[in-house]
Amino acid sequence: MPINNKVLLPVLHVLAWFILFSLPYFLLTLDATQDQVLLKTFIRSWVHLFFYGIIFYINYLYLIDKLLFSNKLLQFIGINVIIIGVSILLREHLKAFYFDQWLDLNSEETRKMPRKEMSIYFNIIATIVPIAFAVALKTTERWVKIEKATKEAATLKLQTEIQHLRYQLQPHFFFNSLNNIYSLVDVAPEQAKSTLHSLSKLMRYLLYETNTSVIALSKEIDFLKKYIDLMELRTSDKTKISYSFPVEETQIQIAPLLFISLIENAFKHGVSATQESEIKISLTTQDNLVIFKIENTNFPKTTTDKSGSGIGLQNLKKGLALLYADKYTFETQLKDGIYSVDLRIET
């Protein structure tokens, strides 16, 4: 179960200060009485740490966000100079009026203490440390938030672009299918009705099954089979169509509608009403690798034929780049009148 940052951060702060306040006990020599140890610890460590904590949180909770990150550097420095000065004056006041009378001013340890000027200098340096630490911590937190926001924005952009491509594909697919049905209305009206019913099933899949990032490969295969059967209705005996898909159920999940454009393309450019033509489609899997191959005879469309506009293939390439980045290969080849595609996706 993930830890809530709202709980984790305060716990870490409390733990850090607890360690800092406890640390003097582990650094003290053990040749003094317990009373002397406690007194020296309080005078030399706890008071300083108390002021350091106040300075740290004034910067951490307010000054850094309000001034430093708002490009008010001079005000940030000025206020901190005042805070450092007040802090040192208060500590010197406490030392002079409350603690010096508890110390043995003639003791050897007291005589070894640095002069007042050096003590103030060391205090200034030491007081800058919690400010620097607060700036470093706050900057790191800000960077993490920006990095997280950037990733979320990139993810949202990716999802939007993918959804846009799907919205482009659906009308494109529907338009091509209606063209096929239109061509059957006069010559085979009953077949046109059956085809229209099949198209409604395919559109139901497009509308209700593909609004997810991934889908079971078996569902996508079932969709491809129905689409091939639909397209096969308008082909003549001169066209030979064969396909091979995995028989056994697989656990592979894949982005929907990746292969349909390739099959559409094969039927657009691989079928002739007057010449022998052939389309071969195969999909195989190897562990988490999906291999899709398609071959078809090539009958290039004329420039006036808008059915060969290539919108589907353009969207496929964009979708692959967005969804699988460097986890796919896409190769095409035209040789001896045969156009072939080899698409491999690592899921």
From TrEMBL:
Transmembrane segments: 7-26, 46-64, 76-98, 118-137
SUPFAM superfamilies found in the cross-reference section: ATPase domain of HSP90 chaperone/DNA topoisomerase II/histidine kinase
Keyword Transmembrane helix applies: yes
GO molecular function: phosphorelay sensor kinase activity
Stretches assigned to the Signal transduction histidine kinase internal region domain: 161-238
Coiled-coil stretches noted in the UniProt entry, renumbered to this chain: none
A single Gene Ontology CC term: membrane
Keywords noted in UniProt: Kinase, Membrane, Transferase, Transmembrane, Transmembrane helix
Domain of life: Bacteria
UniProt-recorded name of the protein: Signal transduction histidine kinase, LytS
Phylogenetic lineage: Bacteria, Pseudomonadati, Bacteroidota, Flavobacteriia, Flavobacteriales
